[in-house]
């Protein structure tokens, strides 16, 4: 409001247009209009206002000296009002705010220049509600506190309280305190009061300190924390709290006994201790007293200091020394081991700090870490016997890659430079007793090096510590993000400061090949994910793959025992399946999941007696797969009778009202919603599924599911041919389905009973009993997909679609020599294969229902579809809301005004309660 | 007055790392854990994990709108004010003796979010039928990272895993409850949703997810009653404002006597609206240790009569001085 450092030398010199009023009785009388200046009498050195008539500059309307203890009030931005020494009430009403401000500056100047030290200026702020106006002292005489004794503490407290409500007086007091080292005097008084056990004095001192802290002045808080003695003095005084008269805290004991752990000796200890003390003050000593402003002040002081810490760590080559600890990996003694572990914890602490810094700062710090040899430390941490250290290690990885996946490619480049390393060995160590990998392998190459991913996978699959599993899972999900390469290339912020650019200039020969272009990224990403699916994924999903291939009865118990012991892992695998099938290039991910029958494995898992929590994860995973609206997954699910597993599970819990039941109803409901043409544009998959459910589980939907509308609605939908009559022709894409059904009379149901009619996968195992259990289904499943692909090619009418199938990438995969070899396909009859022909594609669907619809033919092919985000339901709900809102729209403005006044409403920033800003919905 | 230097109360010193890493489990773990939580002792990470996975197994068995028998005491937002929660149990009856229904917002703001939440979870594990936990808008990953719970977990454990375990539990919490069956009390954290006309509709939601930004599930946790016609945009940025008409329609449609909800600070502890068709109850007295409000709980008896108990902030009790704990270890 008032700038105390403003230059006021010219204040009052410019004539400002003003009306002069004089109070007579109840009325303000207009005494004329003129121009006002502030001047100082040269002989007496007395300042005065001078107003000359605007029509006649010789006519002085007002000459009023600023003297005595006159109080000036600034009101309504353009008024200065006062009672002069003769008792007259005067007012200057300025034409412009600027003029008023200028003459207020004049008052401030002459008061502070001691020309008339006893006058004062108050700012009167009209109160928002009906309460009293707020007055704030802008300038005036200040009473400074006397030096504290055992007799005047109450007076000092009163005085400080009085001075706490204006910026001017606060600033005056704080300057006084700092200049006179007043805080040390308070500490002396405290020591005296404490040694003579005068409780009331101690409480008063505590109140004084709290009031001073709430002055909310950075320089004052810095002063309080400027030396160890002062810190102990501050927290000591605050140990006493009149609100809790029978207790005292022990902050000093705590601080005195606090030993900081040191891994690498540092010379600039101060900033680290400061960080600790600031936080101790914020979180412990002052936690209850802080208002939002002071909280924010402390937070920003902490922030500034932390930036300094991070920069110091970077500049003082401490990190190099830290990472050196991890160089000699062979046999270290207990002491060295402790040091290494502490080093991990220490870095973890600072990485958490760095995480709260601004993007470029943390990016910079993290890349510095990576370059300095972070992975040597992580290598140690991940292999450590102490699971806590392993957790820290993974968390370090997670935080760093969360921030900037391009650090991964930074390592890649370093790898390019450093040719001394032997070729990397991507094979995962099978021997569990062995250490996980050699440290030197702990460098991730985006192209196809799966080392880090393999380690994390191994942790996820084998480690018993749930915390670590969760970390490993998080890390994997980030590393398996399909945007991993483009993130690295696009982060220009990072690019600018990336040390790898220095490498580029030093050694361009090596780096030419690793210049990141979009094209390069694409190839790189493809290789990367191909490597994942060929090297790591089979390990990751090993048990599900086995489960899918084993006989229904035998081995089931053994595997389900394994699974029971690690429910968390399988829940995470379900999430990873949902994630991978959605995020990854379908050409790369889908063959893996289909050929390995992983989804069938999930289905079979539903049949075991594993925990309910896991079964629900499976249901959700299957739901996500269906919502991908992918033709292949859809048909796979139908042909493998995955829904049979689902409904068998559903039957078990259909009579319960619990989360499991809701999750299953939600599953069916999602299919139902997506059959609605208003929601889903590409509906044929959902219609196939709905038909399948109708065909196989009509009874269940009609009777057992009667407690919600979902079952009935699904039956009605199918029986009424998906209400196509009510739709306009040509609006949808189901012509193809219709066409197929007209050409091929498909009535053969599949898998009414899974044991009587083995699934296609079991079928293929039957065909070649000699091949190994793992190998054969894969080969055949691959072939089936390839066949299906050909079918699609035949049916693809548009060049776009044929082009897609002619894509070298795709045909390269489907043209896999193994799966096309005559030997492996022998005995594979199209009709056995399940996938083989269009006929089988739609096995199990009641074509009557579809045919009766009378769909128009379209020329749209059923090509490979990209997963579409499932937006249908959302859209509809939004529409509903909109409609309801429109009807009430005239009320909204009023409501918003009302709402913002309600007690706990969280209008963008609840002014007194919110420590930080948030982009999301605000909260109470 | 007692002499200050002889007073027993001290801030709980931190256990050493080795103590913390010492993972112990025994049949009495739960009973002991409850005691330790009440005394604000450090709960080992492994115990937190175990509690969380146990409670999840129980929560799976609960409906989206859980049916609760009378008599029951309905409690609003706690927001990490553990000592006030303990006062509640002392004045309103300890948990197995009195049946409780908590309407969410266990965490954030206060200094003991973790302990408050863990205490409720531990009680739930011990007496599953005597305590029901409903999800509030603060039982969310996004909100807790901003309003304190996340920071509290990191400060107390040095890593984010404990926060992760708790957030996993959040996803399984029921969205509401019906007290006393037909003609009873519908209890939710926030309020009604334009997407939800009947209680049965809520059954179709798979609630195991982060609180969405829109839709029925979001509205149940975010909406507020207000003197408006129909539905209006909420200044909170999520959920809706709903008026008397909407309440009456919902009550009539679903054969419900009363909607009991929390979510908004009420200086007087509770506030009935819309011809007693809706009530807001608030549990955290002197909210944020400075709002100066009083707290209340609502007890519904077997005849569905309402009794409001009002109480003030916990003070003057050993260990009841709210304070945060300093960071575990500090490395230089």
From TrEMBL, chain A:
Residue span(s) of domain PP4R3 EVH1-like: 16-113
Limits of the Serine/threonine-protein phosphatase 4 regulatory subunit 3-like central domain: 155-718
TM region(s), chain numbering: none
GO biological process: DNA damage response
GO molecular function (one): protein phosphatase activator activity
Signal peptide: none
GO cellular component: nucleoplasm; protein phosphatase 4 complex
Record localization: Nucleus
Keywords: Nucleus
Compositional bias segments (type: Polar residues): 753-777, 887-904, 915-924
Annotated region (Disordered), positions in chain: 748-778, 800-841, 856-924
InterPro entries in the cross-refs: ARM-type_fold, EVH1_PP4R3, P4R3-like_central_dom, PH-like_dom_sf, PP4R3-like
The organism's place on the tree of life at top rank: Eukaryota
Broad class of the protein's primary localization: nucleus
Keyword Protein biosynthesis: no
Feature: compositional bias, Low complexity: 817-836
Pfam families per the UniProt record, alphabetical: EVH1_PP4R3, PP4R3
Protein name, as recorded: DUF625-domain-containing protein
UniProtKB/TrEMBL annotation, chain B:
Cited InterPro entries: Calcineurin-like_PHP, Metallo-depent_PP-like, PPA2-like, Ser/Thr-sp_prot-phosphatase
Cofactors (names): Mn(2+)
Domain Serine/threonine specific protein phosphatases: 134-139
Entry EC number(s): 3.1.3.16
Domain of life: Eukaryota
Reaction(s) catalysed by this chain's protein: O-phospho-L-threonyl-[protein] + H2O = L-threonyl-[protein] + phosphate; O-phospho-L-seryl-[protein] + H2O = L-seryl-[protein] + phosphate
Coiled coil among keywords: no
Molecular-function annotations in GO: metal ion binding; protein serine/threonine phosphatase activity
A Pfam match: Metallophos
Membership in a protein family: Belongs to the PPP phosphatase family.
Protein name per Swiss-Prot or TrEMBL: Serine/threonine-protein phosphatase
Highest classification ranks of the organism: Eukaryota, Fungi, Dikarya, Ascomycota, Saccharomycotina
